[in-house]
Amino acid sequence: MEGTGSQDLGSDSEPSGAPGVEGTWTGGEAGSGSALAPAGMVETHASILFFVGERVYKLRKPVQFGFLDFRQRAIRQADCQRELELNRRLAPDVYVGVADLLMGGEPIDHLVVMRRMPEERRLAALALEGGDLGPCLHRVAERLVTFHGMAERSSAISASATDEAIRSIWEDNFAETQPFVGTILDDVVEAEIRQLAFRWIEGRKPLLDARIALGCVRDGHGDLQAEDIFCLDDGVRILDCLQFSDRLRHGDVCADVSFLVMDLERLGHAEAAVRFLHDYEELGGDRFPDTLVNHYCASRAYVRAKVSCLRSVQGAGAAAIEAARFQSLALDHLRKARVRMVLVGGLPGSGKTTLATGVAAARGWTVLRSDQIRQDLAATSGHPGAPGRLEDRYRPAVTAAVYEELIRRAERALGLGDSVVLDASWIDASWREVARSVAERTSSDLIELCCDTSFEVAEARITRRNAEHADISEATPQVRRAMSRVIDPWPSADVIDTSAMAPDEMVQRALDGVLR
Questions:
Q1: Per-residue confidence (pLDDT) for residue 86, from 0 to 100
Q2: Can you list the residues of the chain whose pLDDT is less than 50?
Q3: Domains of the chain
Q4: What backbone phi and psi angles, to 5 degrees, belong to 145?
Protein backbone atom coordinates (compact mmCIF):
# COMPACT_ATOMS: atom_id res chain seq x y z
CA MET A 1 0.00 0.00 0.00
CA GLU A 2 1.13 3.55 -0.64
CA GLY A 3 2.02 5.77 2.29
CA THR A 4 3.67 9.10 2.95
CA GLY A 5 6.17 9.80 5.69
CA SER A 6 8.88 12.22 6.70
CA GLN A 7 11.94 11.93 8.86
CA ASP A 8 14.44 14.40 10.27
CA LEU A 9 18.03 13.32 9.72
CA GLY A 10 19.22 15.36 12.71
CA SER A 11 18.83 14.85 16.44
CA ASP A 12 16.31 16.60 18.70
CA SER A 13 18.96 19.14 19.64
CA GLU A 14 19.65 20.08 16.01
CA PRO A 15 19.14 23.79 15.30
CA SER A 16 16.00 24.99 13.59
CA GLY A 17 16.11 24.78 9.81
CA ALA A 18 18.15 21.56 9.71
CA PRO A 19 17.42 19.46 6.63
CA GLY A 20 14.85 16.66 6.75
CA VAL A 21 13.49 14.12 4.30
CA GLU A 22 10.01 13.38 3.08
CA GLY A 23 8.69 11.21 0.30
CA THR A 24 6.36 8.51 -0.95
CA TRP A 25 7.24 4.83 -0.98
CA THR A 26 5.84 1.33 -0.95
CA GLY A 27 6.30 -1.22 1.80
CA GLY A 28 5.80 0.40 5.18
CA GLU A 29 6.96 3.39 7.12
CA ALA A 30 10.03 5.44 6.36
CA GLY A 31 11.86 4.37 9.49
CA SER A 32 11.07 2.72 12.80
CA GLY A 33 13.62 4.61 14.86
CA SER A 34 15.20 1.36 16.11
CA ALA A 35 18.85 0.94 15.32
CA LEU A 36 20.06 -2.22 13.61
CA ALA A 37 23.61 -0.92 13.77
CA PRO A 38 25.35 2.35 14.61
CA ALA A 39 24.67 5.26 12.31
CA GLY A 40 27.31 5.86 9.69
CA MET A 41 28.23 7.40 6.39
CA VAL A 42 29.91 6.03 3.26
CA GLU A 43 31.17 8.18 0.41
CA THR A 44 31.66 7.13 -3.21
CA HIS A 45 32.83 9.15 -6.18
CA ALA A 46 29.23 10.14 -7.03
CA SER A 47 27.16 9.67 -3.86
CA ILE A 48 27.03 9.86 -0.07
CA LEU A 49 25.14 7.15 1.81
CA PHE A 50 23.76 7.79 5.29
CA PHE A 51 23.04 4.74 7.45
CA VAL A 52 20.36 5.63 10.01
CA GLY A 53 18.47 2.98 11.96
CA GLU A 54 16.77 0.57 9.58
CA ARG A 55 17.25 2.81 6.55
CA VAL A 56 19.95 3.92 4.15
CA TYR A 57 19.62 7.30 2.42
CA LYS A 58 21.61 7.83 -0.76
CA LEU A 59 22.38 11.40 -1.80
CA ARG A 60 23.93 12.25 -5.17
CA LYS A 61 26.86 14.62 -5.24
CA PRO A 62 26.55 17.58 -7.66
CA VAL A 63 29.57 16.32 -9.63
CA GLN A 64 30.45 16.01 -13.29
CA PHE A 65 32.60 13.30 -14.87
CA GLY A 66 32.93 12.16 -18.44
CA PHE A 67 30.32 9.46 -17.85
CA LEU A 68 27.77 11.39 -15.70
CA ASP A 69 26.66 14.94 -14.90
CA PHE A 70 24.79 15.46 -11.60
CA ARG A 71 25.19 19.25 -11.37
CA GLN A 72 21.48 19.98 -11.81
CA ARG A 73 18.99 19.04 -9.09
CA ALA A 74 16.35 17.95 -11.62
CA ILE A 75 18.82 15.47 -13.12
CA ARG A 76 19.69 14.13 -9.66
CA GLN A 77 16.00 13.68 -8.90
CA ALA A 78 15.39 11.83 -12.19
CA ASP A 79 18.40 9.63 -11.52
CA CYS A 80 17.01 8.71 -8.10
CA GLN A 81 13.75 7.61 -9.72
CA ARG A 82 15.67 5.65 -12.34
CA GLU A 83 17.73 3.91 -9.66
CA LEU A 84 14.57 2.91 -7.83
CA GLU A 85 12.95 1.53 -10.97
CA LEU A 86 15.94 -0.45 -12.21
CA ASN A 87 17.11 -1.86 -8.88
CA ARG A 88 13.67 -3.16 -7.97
CA ARG A 89 14.28 -5.75 -10.69
CA LEU A 90 16.80 -7.54 -8.46
CA ALA A 91 15.91 -6.24 -4.98
CA PRO A 92 12.28 -5.11 -4.92
CA ASP A 93 11.96 -5.17 -1.14
CA VAL A 94 15.16 -3.20 -0.54
CA TYR A 95 14.42 -0.08 -2.59
CA VAL A 96 11.76 1.71 -0.55
CA GLY A 97 11.32 4.97 -2.42
CA VAL A 98 12.63 8.42 -3.27
CA ALA A 99 12.46 11.19 -0.67
CA ASP A 100 12.93 14.95 -0.85
CA LEU A 101 15.62 16.58 1.25
CA LEU A 102 14.02 19.73 2.65
CA MET A 103 15.43 23.00 3.93
CA GLY A 104 12.86 25.35 5.41
CA GLY A 105 10.09 23.29 3.87
CA GLU A 106 11.52 23.56 0.36
CA PRO A 107 13.20 20.66 -1.53
CA ILE A 108 16.91 21.21 -2.01
CA ASP A 109 17.81 17.69 -3.08
CA HIS A 110 16.59 14.09 -3.27
CA LEU A 111 17.54 10.75 -1.77
CA VAL A 112 16.99 7.11 -2.59
CA VAL A 113 15.60 5.38 0.52
CA MET A 114 16.62 1.75 1.05
CA ARG A 115 16.09 -0.92 3.64
CA ARG A 116 19.33 -1.47 5.50
CA MET A 117 20.98 -4.82 4.87
CA PRO A 118 23.02 -6.69 7.53
CA GLU A 119 26.69 -5.90 6.96
CA GLU A 120 27.83 -9.38 7.94
CA ARG A 121 25.82 -10.87 5.05
CA ARG A 122 27.49 -8.71 2.43
CA LEU A 123 29.31 -10.94 -0.09
CA ALA A 124 32.48 -8.86 0.20
CA ALA A 125 32.43 -9.32 3.98
CA LEU A 126 31.92 -13.07 3.61
CA ALA A 127 34.83 -13.18 1.18
CA LEU A 128 37.11 -11.44 3.63
CA GLU A 129 36.16 -13.95 6.33
CA GLY A 130 37.64 -16.67 4.13
CA GLY A 131 34.74 -19.11 4.30
CA ASP A 132 33.19 -21.22 1.56
CA LEU A 133 31.39 -18.88 -0.84
CA GLY A 134 30.10 -21.70 -3.04
CA PRO A 135 26.50 -21.98 -1.77
CA CYS A 136 25.97 -18.22 -1.79
CA LEU A 137 27.50 -17.80 -5.25
CA HIS A 138 25.37 -20.63 -6.61
CA ARG A 139 22.29 -18.71 -5.49
CA VAL A 140 23.69 -15.56 -7.06
CA ALA A 141 24.18 -17.46 -10.32
CA GLU A 142 20.60 -18.74 -10.18
CA ARG A 143 19.26 -15.24 -9.55
CA LEU A 144 21.28 -13.75 -12.39
CA VAL A 145 20.25 -16.43 -14.87
CA THR A 146 16.60 -15.70 -14.09
CA PHE A 147 17.18 -11.94 -14.21
CA HIS A 148 19.05 -12.04 -17.52
CA GLY A 149 16.42 -14.35 -19.01
CA MET A 150 13.74 -11.76 -18.31
CA ALA A 151 15.83 -8.65 -19.01
CA GLU A 152 14.88 -6.42 -21.90
CA ARG A 153 16.27 -7.03 -25.39
CA SER A 154 16.11 -4.79 -28.44
CA SER A 155 18.15 -3.74 -31.45
CA ALA A 156 19.15 -0.56 -29.58
CA ILE A 157 20.36 -2.61 -26.62
CA SER A 158 22.26 -4.97 -28.94
CA ALA A 159 24.05 -1.98 -30.48
CA SER A 160 25.83 -1.52 -27.14
CA ALA A 161 27.78 -4.77 -27.64
CA THR A 162 29.12 -4.37 -31.18
CA ASP A 163 32.83 -4.08 -31.80
CA GLU A 164 32.44 -0.35 -32.53
CA ALA A 165 30.52 0.23 -29.29
CA ILE A 166 33.01 -1.68 -27.15
CA ARG A 167 35.90 0.21 -28.73
CA SER A 168 34.12 3.50 -28.03
CA ILE A 169 33.70 2.61 -24.35
CA TRP A 170 37.42 1.80 -24.04
CA GLU A 171 38.28 5.08 -25.77
CA ASP A 172 36.11 7.02 -23.34
CA ASN A 173 37.71 5.29 -20.37
CA PHE A 174 41.19 6.01 -21.69
CA ALA A 175 40.31 9.68 -22.17
CA GLU A 176 39.02 9.86 -18.60
CA THR A 177 42.12 8.20 -17.10
CA GLN A 178 44.64 10.15 -19.20
CA PRO A 179 45.22 12.83 -16.51
CA PHE A 180 46.31 10.10 -14.08
CA VAL A 181 48.74 8.22 -16.36
CA GLY A 182 52.30 8.60 -15.12
CA THR A 183 51.17 9.54 -11.62
CA ILE A 184 48.54 7.19 -10.20
CA LEU A 185 48.58 4.81 -13.17
CA ASP A 186 51.79 3.27 -14.50
CA ASP A 187 52.48 4.57 -18.01
CA VAL A 188 54.17 1.38 -19.26
CA VAL A 189 51.32 -0.80 -18.04
CA GLU A 190 48.86 1.67 -19.53
CA ALA A 191 50.46 1.52 -22.98
CA GLU A 192 50.19 -2.27 -23.07
CA ILE A 193 46.57 -2.17 -21.87
CA ARG A 194 45.61 0.20 -24.66
CA GLN A 195 47.39 -1.84 -27.31
CA LEU A 196 45.91 -5.17 -26.19
CA ALA A 197 42.37 -3.86 -25.69
CA PHE A 198 42.13 -2.48 -29.22
CA ARG A 199 43.90 -5.47 -30.79
CA TRP A 200 41.38 -7.87 -29.23
CA ILE A 201 38.42 -5.85 -30.51
CA GLU A 202 39.83 -5.60 -34.05
CA GLY A 203 39.71 -9.36 -34.55
CA ARG A 204 36.57 -10.32 -32.65
CA LYS A 205 33.72 -8.95 -34.76
CA PRO A 206 32.49 -12.47 -35.66
CA LEU A 207 32.36 -13.40 -31.97
CA LEU A 208 30.56 -10.22 -30.91
CA ASP A 209 28.10 -10.48 -33.80
CA ALA A 210 27.40 -14.10 -32.90
CA ARG A 211 26.70 -13.17 -29.27
CA ILE A 212 24.22 -10.54 -30.43
CA ALA A 213 22.54 -13.01 -32.81
CA LEU A 214 22.18 -15.52 -29.97
CA GLY A 215 20.29 -12.94 -27.88
CA CYS A 216 23.00 -12.62 -25.25
CA VAL A 217 22.89 -8.82 -25.05
CA ARG A 218 20.46 -7.51 -22.43
CA ASP A 219 19.58 -4.58 -20.22
CA GLY A 220 21.65 -5.94 -17.36
CA HIS A 221 23.11 -4.76 -14.08
CA GLY A 222 26.33 -3.19 -15.30
CA ASP A 223 28.18 -2.89 -11.98
CA LEU A 224 28.09 -6.29 -10.30
CA GLN A 225 30.37 -5.93 -7.27
CA ALA A 226 30.66 -8.22 -4.24
CA GLU A 227 30.15 -5.14 -2.07
CA ASP A 228 26.57 -4.78 -3.34
CA ILE A 229 25.41 -8.40 -3.02
CA PHE A 230 23.81 -9.71 0.18
CA CYS A 231 23.35 -13.40 0.92
CA LEU A 232 20.30 -13.61 3.17
CA ASP A 233 18.46 -16.66 4.48
CA ASP A 234 15.51 -15.98 2.16
CA GLY A 235 17.63 -15.37 -0.94
CA VAL A 236 20.19 -12.99 -2.38
CA ARG A 237 19.70 -9.28 -2.87
CA ILE A 238 21.70 -7.60 -5.63
CA LEU A 239 21.85 -3.82 -5.31
CA ASP A 240 23.19 -0.72 -7.01
CA CYS A 241 22.99 -1.35 -10.74
CA LEU A 242 24.46 1.19 -13.14
CA GLN A 243 21.40 3.38 -13.58
CA PHE A 244 22.84 6.65 -14.89
CA SER A 245 23.83 5.35 -18.35
CA ASP A 246 21.82 2.92 -20.48
CA ARG A 247 24.79 2.66 -22.84
CA LEU A 248 27.06 1.38 -20.08
CA ARG A 249 24.46 -0.88 -18.46
CA HIS A 250 23.41 -2.59 -21.70
CA GLY A 251 25.70 -5.40 -22.73
CA ASP A 252 26.45 -9.07 -23.05
CA VAL A 253 25.35 -11.08 -20.03
CA CYS A 254 28.95 -12.29 -19.99
CA ALA A 255 30.02 -8.75 -19.10
CA ASP A 256 27.79 -8.78 -16.02
CA VAL A 257 29.05 -12.18 -14.90
CA SER A 258 32.67 -11.26 -15.61
CA PHE A 259 32.42 -8.19 -13.38
CA LEU A 260 31.76 -10.38 -10.34
CA VAL A 261 34.34 -12.94 -11.50
CA MET A 262 36.94 -10.15 -11.54
CA ASP A 263 35.84 -8.80 -8.16
CA LEU A 264 36.00 -12.22 -6.49
CA GLU A 265 39.47 -12.72 -7.92
CA ARG A 266 40.50 -9.33 -6.52
CA LEU A 267 39.24 -10.41 -3.10
CA GLY A 268 41.44 -13.51 -3.19
CA HIS A 269 38.78 -16.05 -4.21
CA ALA A 270 39.89 -17.08 -7.69
CA GLU A 271 38.62 -20.66 -7.30
CA ALA A 272 35.22 -19.45 -6.11
CA ALA A 273 35.12 -17.10 -9.12
CA VAL A 274 35.67 -20.03 -11.49
CA ARG A 275 32.96 -22.09 -9.77
CA PHE A 276 30.53 -19.17 -9.97
CA LEU A 277 31.29 -18.75 -13.68
CA HIS A 278 30.72 -22.44 -14.35
CA ASP A 279 27.51 -22.43 -12.30
CA TYR A 280 26.13 -19.57 -14.38
CA GLU A 281 27.15 -21.23 -17.66
CA GLU A 282 25.56 -24.52 -16.66
CA LEU A 283 22.35 -22.97 -15.33
CA GLY A 284 22.05 -20.58 -18.25
CA GLY A 285 23.10 -23.02 -20.96
CA ASP A 286 25.61 -20.50 -22.27
CA ARG A 287 29.28 -21.38 -22.53
CA PHE A 288 31.40 -18.21 -22.63
CA PRO A 289 34.65 -18.32 -24.62
CA ASP A 290 37.57 -17.79 -22.23
CA THR A 291 38.84 -14.89 -24.29
CA LEU A 292 35.47 -13.11 -23.95
CA VAL A 293 35.42 -13.59 -20.17
CA ASN A 294 38.96 -12.29 -19.84
CA HIS A 295 38.31 -9.26 -22.03
CA TYR A 296 35.25 -8.30 -20.01
CA CYS A 297 37.11 -8.94 -16.74
CA ALA A 298 39.78 -6.55 -18.00
CA SER A 299 37.30 -3.87 -19.01
CA ARG A 300 35.57 -4.08 -15.62
CA ALA A 301 38.86 -3.91 -13.74
CA TYR A 302 39.87 -0.88 -15.78
CA VAL A 303 36.60 0.89 -14.95
CA ARG A 304 37.33 0.28 -11.27
CA ALA A 305 40.82 1.70 -11.78
CA LYS A 306 39.29 4.83 -13.30
CA VAL A 307 36.83 5.27 -10.44
CA SER A 308 39.64 4.79 -7.92
CA CYS A 309 41.59 7.56 -9.65
CA LEU A 310 38.59 9.88 -9.30
CA ARG A 311 38.21 8.96 -5.64
CA SER A 312 41.88 9.69 -5.09
CA VAL A 313 41.41 13.23 -6.37
CA GLN A 314 38.46 13.57 -3.99
CA GLY A 315 40.76 12.74 -1.09
CA ALA A 316 40.19 9.02 -0.50
CA GLY A 317 43.45 7.91 1.06
CA ALA A 318 43.88 4.37 -0.30
CA ALA A 319 42.27 5.00 -3.68
CA ALA A 320 45.55 5.52 -5.55
CA ILE A 321 46.83 2.13 -4.38
CA GLU A 322 43.55 0.53 -5.41
CA ALA A 323 43.75 2.17 -8.83
CA ALA A 324 47.18 0.66 -9.46
CA ARG A 325 45.96 -2.77 -8.37
CA PHE A 326 42.97 -2.62 -10.70
CA GLN A 327 45.17 -1.43 -13.55
CA SER A 328 47.48 -4.41 -13.03
CA LEU A 329 44.49 -6.76 -12.90
CA ALA A 330 43.17 -5.33 -16.16
CA LEU A 331 46.50 -5.98 -17.88
CA ASP A 332 46.64 -9.54 -16.54
CA HIS A 333 43.24 -10.35 -18.02
CA LEU A 334 44.00 -8.68 -21.34
CA ARG A 335 47.08 -10.85 -21.65
CA LYS A 336 44.95 -13.92 -20.95
CA ALA A 337 42.39 -12.71 -23.49
CA ARG A 338 44.90 -12.85 -26.36
CA VAL A 339 43.82 -15.23 -29.10
CA ARG A 340 46.63 -17.54 -30.24
CA MET A 341 47.30 -19.33 -33.50
CA VAL A 342 49.95 -22.01 -32.91
CA LEU A 343 51.54 -23.77 -35.86
CA VAL A 344 53.09 -27.07 -34.77
CA GLY A 345 55.02 -28.61 -37.63
CA GLY A 346 57.71 -31.08 -38.52
CA LEU A 347 58.14 -34.22 -40.56
CA PRO A 348 56.17 -37.39 -39.73
CA GLY A 349 57.46 -39.05 -36.57
CA SER A 350 58.90 -35.81 -35.19
CA GLY A 351 56.46 -35.67 -32.26
CA LYS A 352 54.39 -32.76 -33.58
CA THR A 353 51.02 -34.40 -32.88
CA THR A 354 52.05 -35.26 -29.34
CA LEU A 355 53.12 -31.68 -28.77
CA ALA A 356 50.07 -30.16 -30.47
CA THR A 357 47.50 -32.22 -28.57
CA GLY A 358 49.36 -31.73 -25.30
CA VAL A 359 49.50 -27.95 -25.65
CA ALA A 360 45.85 -27.78 -26.67
CA ALA A 361 44.79 -29.89 -23.70
CA ALA A 362 46.88 -27.87 -21.25
CA ARG A 363 45.39 -24.55 -22.37
CA GLY A 364 41.89 -25.66 -23.33
CA TRP A 365 42.48 -24.64 -26.96
CA THR A 366 41.13 -26.20 -30.14
CA VAL A 367 43.46 -28.54 -32.02
CA LEU A 368 43.02 -28.90 -35.78
CA ARG A 369 44.87 -31.80 -37.43
CA SER A 370 45.77 -32.06 -41.09
CA ASP A 371 45.57 -35.85 -40.81
CA GLN A 372 41.94 -35.63 -39.68
CA ILE A 373 41.07 -33.19 -42.44
CA ARG A 374 42.81 -35.38 -45.01
CA GLN A 375 40.70 -38.28 -43.80
CA ASP A 376 37.53 -36.18 -43.91
CA LEU A 377 38.24 -35.06 -47.45
CA ALA A 378 39.06 -38.61 -48.55
CA ALA A 379 35.62 -39.67 -47.37
CA THR A 380 33.94 -36.96 -49.46
CA SER A 381 32.49 -38.44 -52.59
CA GLY A 382 34.11 -37.20 -55.78
CA HIS A 383 37.00 -35.46 -54.01
CA PRO A 384 40.44 -36.08 -55.55
CA GLY A 385 41.52 -37.63 -52.25
CA ALA A 386 38.83 -40.29 -52.39
CA PRO A 387 40.73 -43.08 -54.18
CA GLY A 388 42.08 -45.72 -51.85
CA ARG A 389 45.78 -45.52 -52.71
CA LEU A 390 47.93 -43.78 -50.08
CA GLU A 391 49.94 -42.05 -52.80
CA ASP A 392 46.78 -40.41 -54.12
CA ARG A 393 45.93 -38.98 -50.72
CA TYR A 394 49.31 -37.22 -50.59
CA ARG A 395 49.24 -35.76 -54.10
CA PRO A 396 49.92 -31.97 -54.26
CA ALA A 397 46.30 -31.16 -55.17
CA VAL A 398 45.01 -33.06 -52.14
CA THR A 399 47.60 -31.51 -49.83
CA ALA A 400 46.59 -28.05 -51.06
CA ALA A 401 42.93 -28.86 -50.33
CA VAL A 402 43.87 -30.07 -46.84
CA TYR A 403 45.73 -26.85 -46.00
CA GLU A 404 42.96 -24.68 -47.43
CA GLU A 405 40.40 -26.40 -45.22
CA LEU A 406 42.74 -26.36 -42.20
CA ILE A 407 43.25 -22.62 -42.50
CA ARG A 408 39.57 -21.95 -43.22
CA ARG A 409 38.55 -23.73 -40.00
CA ALA A 410 41.27 -21.92 -38.09
CA GLU A 411 40.17 -18.49 -39.28
CA ARG A 412 36.60 -19.16 -38.27
CA ALA A 413 37.63 -20.34 -34.79
CA LEU A 414 39.96 -17.38 -34.26
CA GLY A 415 37.26 -14.90 -35.20
CA LEU A 416 35.02 -16.52 -32.57
CA GLY A 417 37.72 -16.07 -29.95
CA ASP A 418 39.03 -19.64 -29.83
CA SER A 419 42.77 -20.12 -29.81
CA VAL A 420 43.84 -22.90 -32.15
CA VAL A 421 46.73 -25.31 -32.50
CA LEU A 422 47.31 -26.39 -36.10
CA ASP A 423 48.97 -29.80 -36.35
CA ALA A 424 50.46 -30.23 -39.83
CA SER A 425 53.92 -30.68 -41.32
CA TRP A 426 54.10 -27.05 -42.57
CA ILE A 427 56.98 -28.02 -44.88
CA ASP A 428 55.81 -25.54 -47.54
CA ALA A 429 56.73 -21.93 -46.69
CA SER A 430 53.87 -20.58 -48.82
CA TRP A 431 51.27 -22.15 -46.51
CA ARG A 432 53.01 -20.69 -43.49
CA GLU A 433 52.67 -17.29 -45.12
CA VAL A 434 48.95 -17.87 -45.62
CA ALA A 435 48.66 -18.75 -41.94
CA ARG A 436 50.50 -15.56 -40.98
CA SER A 437 48.05 -13.48 -43.01
CA VAL A 438 45.13 -15.15 -41.20
CA ALA A 439 46.70 -14.40 -37.82
CA GLU A 440 47.12 -10.77 -38.84
CA ARG A 441 43.59 -10.54 -40.24
CA THR A 442 42.08 -11.92 -37.01
CA SER A 443 44.38 -9.96 -34.68
CA SER A 444 45.73 -13.22 -33.27
CA ASP A 445 49.19 -13.96 -31.89
CA LEU A 446 51.11 -16.34 -34.14
CA ILE A 447 53.43 -18.90 -32.55
CA GLU A 448 55.48 -21.26 -34.71
CA LEU A 449 56.94 -24.50 -33.34
CA CYS A 450 58.93 -27.00 -35.37
CA CYS A 451 59.52 -30.46 -33.96
CA ASP A 452 62.70 -32.27 -34.93
CA THR A 453 64.29 -35.62 -34.26
CA SER A 454 66.75 -38.02 -35.85
CA PHE A 455 65.84 -40.14 -38.86
CA GLU A 456 66.20 -43.34 -36.81
CA VAL A 457 63.93 -42.17 -33.96
CA ALA A 458 61.29 -40.90 -36.40
CA GLU A 459 61.20 -44.14 -38.42
CA ALA A 460 60.95 -46.21 -35.24
CA ARG A 461 58.02 -44.08 -34.05
CA ILE A 462 56.23 -44.33 -37.40
CA THR A 463 56.73 -48.08 -37.65
CA ARG A 464 55.47 -48.67 -34.11
CA ARG A 465 52.48 -46.33 -34.56
CA ASN A 466 51.38 -47.99 -37.81
CA ALA A 467 51.81 -51.48 -36.40
CA GLU A 468 49.69 -50.65 -33.38
CA HIS A 469 47.16 -48.57 -35.35
CA ALA A 470 47.67 -46.00 -32.62
CA ASP A 471 46.84 -42.92 -34.67
CA ILE A 472 44.92 -41.76 -37.72
CA SER A 473 48.15 -40.62 -39.41
CA GLU A 474 48.84 -42.66 -42.56
CA ALA A 475 52.38 -41.42 -43.10
CA THR A 476 54.98 -44.11 -43.68
CA PRO A 477 58.79 -43.93 -43.56
CA GLN A 478 58.65 -43.60 -47.35
CA VAL A 479 56.31 -40.61 -47.10
CA ARG A 480 58.61 -39.03 -44.52
CA ARG A 481 61.65 -39.45 -46.78
CA ALA A 482 59.78 -37.91 -49.72
CA MET A 483 58.71 -34.91 -47.61
CA SER A 484 62.22 -34.40 -46.24
CA ARG A 485 63.47 -33.76 -49.77
CA VAL A 486 61.10 -30.81 -50.37
CA ILE A 487 60.89 -29.15 -46.95
CA ASP A 488 61.46 -25.37 -47.02
CA PRO A 489 63.63 -23.70 -44.39
CA TRP A 490 61.63 -22.44 -41.38
CA PRO A 491 63.80 -19.80 -39.68
CA SER A 492 60.89 -18.13 -37.83
CA ALA A 493 60.01 -21.28 -35.88
CA ASP A 494 61.20 -22.28 -32.42
CA VAL A 495 62.76 -25.71 -32.87
CA ILE A 496 62.04 -28.38 -30.25
CA ASP A 497 64.23 -31.47 -30.42
CA THR A 498 61.98 -34.29 -29.25
CA SER A 499 64.53 -37.10 -29.57
CA ALA A 500 65.06 -37.66 -25.86
CA MET A 501 61.97 -35.93 -24.47
CA ALA A 502 58.98 -37.53 -22.82
CA PRO A 503 55.62 -36.12 -23.98
CA ASP A 504 55.11 -34.11 -20.78
CA GLU A 505 58.56 -32.58 -21.15
CA MET A 506 57.83 -31.50 -24.72
CA VAL A 507 54.61 -29.77 -23.71
CA GLN A 508 56.15 -28.10 -20.68
CA ARG A 509 59.05 -26.83 -22.78
CA ALA A 510 56.58 -25.09 -25.09
CA LEU A 511 54.44 -23.74 -22.26
CA ASP A 512 57.42 -22.37 -20.37
CA GLY A 513 58.88 -20.83 -23.50
CA VAL A 514 57.00 -19.08 -26.27
CA LEU A 515 53.54 -19.94 -24.86
CA ARG A 516 53.95 -18.54 -21.37
A1: 95
A2: 1-35, 381, 384-387
A3: 2-115 (no CATH), 119-337 (3.90.1200.10), 340-512 (3.40.50.300)
A4: -60, -45
